[in-house]
Structure formats: structure tokens, C-alpha cells
Amino acid sequence: MNIASHTRLAFTATTHSPEDTMRLGQRIGSLLEPGDVIALFGSLGSGKTTLVKGIGLGLGMKDSREVRSASFLIIAEYKARIPIYHFDAYRLDGPEDMYNLGCDELFWGDGVSIVEWADRVEGSLPEEYLEVSLSIESPNSRRVEVSSHGKRYERIVRGLEGKGP
Ligand SMILES: Nc1ncnc2c1ncn2[C@@H]1O[C@H](COP(=O)(O)OP(=O)(O)OP(=O)(O)O)[C@@H](O)[C@H]1O
Ligand SMILES: [Mg+2]
């Protein structure tokens, strides 16, 4: 089996406001299934937490204000159609810190796991995950690229194709 031989499918959009980014998150959230893992990449203020708020709404969270920068908590759990585990790896020093937090159990469980600052703990991610990379294009616009690592996540990229954010 050679995972790297899979074609990586990608969907790219530019969002022009935080609300736009939330709407894109909401569309991603509506496509998620138990056990999905989403890795968020992007610099300070690129919109990672804003996107998680949208994902939460897409997964049926009642109030997205519950989602905040989880830097101090490191893991926050939200109730939704599927439980959401929101990691913020900003303060972590590497994959060992993630393992010590019990990430494996959560990644392989029936919730949806979302990791902010995934580049800081990349070695702890499962072989297959959905990558979302955000970058700042201008003060109010963000480039968002969603790509599949592994076949499991192709359905989400396909689900996003053909429609705007
Ligand atoms: N198109 C946009 N999408 C998302 N956020 C935007 C956009 N335009 C402006 N913003 C602003 O950028 C900031 C994004 O902050 P957010 O907390 O979501 O980013 P983050 O990547 O989680 O940051 P951190 O690295 O601190 O965790 C907010 O103040 C938001 O209002
Ligand atoms: Mg954040």
C-alpha cells in the first residue's frame, strides 16, 4: 500500500470577511463524519479559529461563541451532531506533547478532531487527514486551500467543488 501514490485532491477559495470564512467552515462541517481529523495550517491571525467556529455550526453546534482560541486549554470539547475535539498546538513543543494529551485515542474515536497549528505537531497526525491551509492575502481576505491526505477525505474536497464559499 502506498498512500503517497494517491492523487491529492484540492479545493481553493478566497474568503473576503470572517463571515465568509465561517460559511466555508460550515460547508466543511456539514460534510464531516465520525472519526474525521482536520489539520489546520496558517500563520497568526490567518483565520483558523474563525474556520473552526463555522465547522462547529456545520456540525450542528448551537452557539459558535463557545469556540475560542484554545491556546490555554489546548483541548476543548464541544457538543454537536458529532462531538468536536478542538486542539490548539500553539504552545506545544512537538508530537510527544500531543501523544501525552491522548490525541491518539481522540483521533481514532468517534468524534471529529480539529488541530490548530498542526505544523507544530505534524508527526502526531494520522496517515490520513484533511489539510486546511490558510494564508493572509490582504487585511480582510484569506486564501483557503482544502486538500485530502488519503482517499477517506476525497469526498469532502469533492463536496466543496463547484460552489463558492
Ligand atoms: N476573510 C477572513 N477570514 C477570517 N478572518 C478574517 C478575515 N478577514 C479578517 N479576519 C480577521 O482575522 C482574525 C482571524 O483570527 P482567528 O483567531 O480566526 O485566526 P487564527 O488563525 O485562529 O489565529 P491564531 O494564530 O491566533 O490562533 C480575526 O480578527 C478576523 O476578524
Ligand atoms: Mg486560533
Number of domains: 1
What is the CA-based Rg, rounded? Answer: 15 Å
The molecules bound to the chains, other than polymers, are: adenosine-5'-triphosphate, magnesium ion
Specify the CATH homologous superfamily.
P-loop containing nucleotide triphosphate hydrolases
**Helix count?**
5
Helix content: 25-40%
* The CATH architecture: 3-Layer(aba) Sandwich
Q: Which topology does CATH recognise?
A: Rossmann fold
Number of strands: 7
Shape: globular
- Secondary structural class: alpha/beta
Overall pLDDT level: 93
Strand content: 25-35%
Q: Main β-sheet: number of strands, strand sense, barrel status?
A: 7 strands, mixed
Question: Which secondary structure elements does this structure contain, and how are they paired or packed?
Answer:
Elements: E1 10-15, H1 18-30, E2 37-41, H2 48-58, E3 75-78, E4 84-88, H3 95-100, H4 103-107, E5 112-116, E6 129-138, E7 141-149, H5 154-160
Parallel strand pairs: 2-5, 2-6, 4-5
Antiparallel strand pairs: 1-7, 3-4, 6-7
Bound molecules: adenosine-5'-triphosphate and magnesium ion.
In words, what does this structure look like?
The protein is α/β, with parallel strands linked by helices and 165 residues long. It has a single domain, classed as P-loop containing nucleotide triphosphate hydrolases (Rossmann fold), CATH 3.40.50. Helix content is 25%, strand content 27%. It is built from five helices and seven strands. It has helices at residues 18-30, 48-58, 95-100, 103-107, 154-160, and strands spanning 10-15, 37-41, 75-78, 84-88, 112-116, 129-138, 141-149. Strands 1-7-6-2-5-4-3 form a seven-stranded mixed β-sheet. Strand 3 (75-78) and strand 4 (84-88) form a beta hairpin. Helix 1 (18-30) packs across helix 2. It is globular and about 40 Å long. The N and C termini lie far apart (35 Å). The mean pLDDT is 93. Magnesium ion binds at residues 48-49, 69, 116. Magnesium ion binds next to helix 2.
